[in-house]
Amino acid sequence: MNYSEKYKGLTLIEVLITMAIIAILAAVVYPAYVDVTGRSNRSEAQRELSRLAFLQEQFFADNRTYTADMTDLGAPADPYITESGNYSIDATIGAGGTTFDLKATAKGNQASVDASCITLSIDEALVKTASSENCWEQ
What we know:
Layout: H1 3-6, H2 12-63, E1 80-81, E2 87-93, E3 100-106, H3 108-113, E4 119-123, E5 128-130
Antiparallel strand pairs: 1-2, 2-3, 3-4, 4-5
């Protein structure tokens, strides 16, 4: 009987080397995955803020004032929670109802995953601000 017929399977060293390679790959890939999902969720908030700003302008055209009640804009609740549940969006109206500020605040896991961009906002002049630089995609 030769060596290859006697010993079939993997040695402990081969299994450990394979596990080490998998661990190294996971250590590199996981942070990138978390970053991509955080930015993806942030883009949902950006999209919803832009959409709600447009709806505020429609509301203003009809009523000559902006609204702080998100349900007036067709949202299911006030404050409005995005479809994924990662952001809460609320409106603040200036004196006389001629200005507004829509603010999205990260909730739950999104607040820890995307800690540098916890808040995003947009106003009636479509000025976009955030809790830190580079939160709004250009």
